[in-house]
Amino acid sequence: PGAEPAGICLACSYECHGTHRLFELYTKRNFRCDCGNSKFKNLQCKLLPEKGKVNSGNKYNDNFYGLYCTCKRPYPDPEDEIPDEMIQCIVCEDWFHGRHLGAVPPESGDFHEMVCQACMKHCHFLWAYAPQLAVPPLTKANSLEDERIVLKVEESEEQKKEIKKESGVEHHDTKEEKQLEQFNEPSTSSGSACPEVVTKNEEPVCKLKELQSKPFVKKDTATFWPSNWRSKLCTCEDCLKMYSELEVQFLTDECDTVLAYENKGTSDQETERRDPLMDTLNSMNRVQQVELICEYNDLKTELTDYLRRFADEGTVVKREDIQHFFEEFQSRKRRRTNRMQYYCS
Fold first, then answer.
1. Which of 51, 159, 170, 232 to pair with 31, CA 20 to 30 A apart?
2. Nearest residue to 223 (alpha-carbon basis) of 95, 82, 112
3. Where is the composition biased (Basic and acidic residues) (predicted)?
């Protein structure tokens, strides 16, 4: 109580903070572990003692006090009896109750990322993308509200055309329709940059300006996005400058997603589980592989025979015994090598 907020990595939580009360915050981008710096008195990090006194690039919010969402409540909340899912905003990285987002979230499998209400106001340009890219929230039917039945309401293309005709807007520009179809095509790129759109004179076209020229509605709600939406954001010079000014450059980086982060962790674990002997063998040519296997089998046979004598006599194997074995083994190996004859082909 009364101390500055601090964040520590998972490894330090096990090694250095076993007796401390901790709040698990999941992922925080561009964050450095505070363990052992000036925020902790009389505590040195056991894993990396040489650390800077302050991590000036770290950002701290209410999560570091164990409070979440716009309601500023802990999780789990002993006073909250309503079952609700917590969803993390990809911009501010705070966690929100589904009922405090200004809209009913779609089914969990229908969207991959969420941008909260406050961050949609900050990243106002996303509203121009929302009609084409965002996953629509669920809509409660008024007649069924009392029964708490939630329906997903989607307008058909015919209904949309009728609505536009009634409002005096005719939708007959086939060129615009083709551009929109191209914009909505699934992304095939695994990189962070969206495909460059060019005109006949090879000048890049700003996707955002094209979308902003069409009518769209800004709402006071969170938005929900599919898996490949980041690759559809414009990466022209003006838009990149805007992302930098808003400090949201990460939005165009598909490796920034939590899914990419988790996949990287899985890949690293698989690498750690690999057999180092097999990796060494795979890096050698055929002759080297045969020589290594023969040497390994010789060592295994001689060490097994050597240790069997101790087992038969019921004596304890000491450190000096192991050192003596390897000294003798190296000596025999040198004698064998010196007797070998080499021939040039």
1. 232
2. 112
3. 155-180
Closest C-alpha to 128, from 9, 217, 44, 46? 217
HSE-up of residue 270 (Cα within 13 Å, Cβ side): 6
Most confident of 106-120, 147-161, 189-203: 106-120
CA distance 159 to 138: 18
Helix (H) or strand (E) holding 100: none
Residue 103 is classified by DSSP as S
Does position 190 have pLDDT exceeding 70, yes or no?
A: no
pLDDT tens sequence across 214-270: 999 999 999 999 999 999 999 999 999 999 999 999 999 999 998 888 888 888 777
Give me 186's structure tokens.
Answer: 């699934």
Please state, in angstroms and rounded to a whole number, the distance separating the CA atoms of residues 103 and 277: 55
What are 81's strand-pairing partners?
none
- The values of phi and psi at residue 295, to 5°, are -65, -40
> What is the reported pLDDT for 183?
52
CA distance 267 to 204: 37
DSSP 134: S
Q: What is the pLDDT of residue 250?
A: 96
Distances from the Cα of 88 to the Cα of 25, 26, 68, 335, angstroms = 10, 10, 10, 66
> Would you list the DSSP string of 66-95?
T-BTTTTB-SS-TT--S---EEEBTTT--E
Three-state SS annotation for 163-222: HHHHCCCCCCCHHHHHHHHHHCCCCCCCCCCCCCCECCCCCECCHHHHHHCCCCCCCCCC
Confidence class for position 36, pLDDT limits 50, 70, 90: very high
Q: Render 277-344 in DSSP notation, one character per residue.
A: HHHHHHTS-HHHHHHHHHHHHHHHHHHHHHHHHHHHHTPPPPHHHHHHHHHHHHHHHHHHHHH-----
Instruction: Classify 256 as helix, strand or coil.
Output: helix
